[in-house]
């Protein structure tokens, strides 16, 4: 009979501590943004000492990078679960675009500050390796959406349906990101949109482009 692994409980506690720490960092980023986040605030949110943080990360920047990568990994797992191969079976392209548009808008719910911080961080990031890892995850999510729409290629007028789908989704996510993260003044003045209206207009725009 093999002896029990004496390190297992310690390793489990260490994993739980790390999860608490990264979750706390993301919570502080949501509330305070990049400019306001500090190690003491993260420690207080996690219920840990600052020393516990510095035993795991060299500095605040290393912790922020780990937290953002966890966020992107979680988004990948969620998208994979929410996009089974048969999701759009029996549906038309317009219906599929409405579903995707609602999902794209919904991902900002309760995370606007956090996603804005991620956007700012990537734009100013000088660590090429981290930026590459982050963009790999974001691109993988986008390619999963593209793959979900490829079964509708026969309904798309463009000579290269995959390229057209890619452009439509990139344009849609750009419009949604601008609305949710940057609150453009002219849009708010001329055409204010709540989440439901934003998703509907984005879906309609993609359908018009892909079917034109």
Put the structure in a nutshell:
This protein is 75% helix and 0% strand.
- How far the N terminus sits from the C terminus, by CA atoms, comes to 69 Å
Helix percentage range: over 70%
Number of strands: 0
Shape: elongated
Mean pLDDT rating: 90
The radius of gyration computed from the alpha-carbon positions, rounded to a whole number of angstroms, is 21 Å
Order of helices and strands: HHHHHHHHHH
Residue stretches low in confidence (pLDDT < 50, at least 5 long) are none
Beta-strand proportion: under 5%
* Main pleated-sheet profile: none
- Count of DSSP-assigned helices: 10
Class from secondary-structure proportions: mainly alpha
How would you describe this protein?
By secondary structure, the protein is mainly alpha-helical. The chain is 75% helix and 0% strand. It has ten helices and no strands. The chain has helices spanning 8-36, 39-46, 50-54, 60-82, 93-106, 112-123, 128-149, 161-182, 185-190, 195-211. The longest helix is centred in the N-terminal third of the chain and has 29 residues, at 8-36. It starts with 7 loop residues before the first helix and ends with a helix.
List the helices and strands and how they pair.
Layout lengths: L7 H29 L2 H8 L3 H5 L5 H23 L10 H14 L5 H12 L4 H22 L11 H22 L2 H6 L4 H17 L1
Features:
single chain; 212 residues; mainly alpha; 10 helices; 0% strand; elongated
């Amino acid at each position: 009979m093999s002896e029990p692994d004496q390190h297992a409980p310690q390793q489990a506690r260490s994993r739980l501590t790390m999860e608490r720490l990264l979750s706390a960092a993301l919570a502080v980023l949501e509330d305070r943004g990049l400019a306001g986040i500090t190690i003491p605030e993260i420690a207080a949110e996690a219920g840990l000492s600052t020393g516990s943080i510095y035993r795991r990360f060299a500095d605040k920047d290393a912790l922020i990078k780990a937290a953002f990568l966890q966020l992107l990994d979680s988004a990948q797992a969620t998208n994979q679960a929410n996009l089974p191969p048969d999701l759009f079976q029996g549906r038309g392209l317009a219906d599929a675009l409405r579903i995707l548009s609602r999902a794209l808008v919904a991902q900002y719910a309760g995370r606007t500050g956090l996603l804005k911080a991620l956007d700012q961080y990537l734009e100013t990031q000088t660590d090429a390796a981290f930026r590459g890892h982050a963009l790999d995850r974001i691109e993988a999510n986008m390619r999963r959406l593209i793959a979900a729409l490829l079964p509708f290629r026969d309904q798309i007028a463009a000579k290269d349906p995959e390229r057209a789908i890619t452009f439509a989704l990139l344009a849609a996510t750009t419009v949604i990101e601008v609305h949710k993260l940057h609150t453009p003044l002219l849009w708010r003045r001329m055409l204010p949109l709540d989440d439901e209206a934003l998703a509907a207009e984005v879906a309609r725009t993609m359908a018009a482009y892909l079917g034109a």
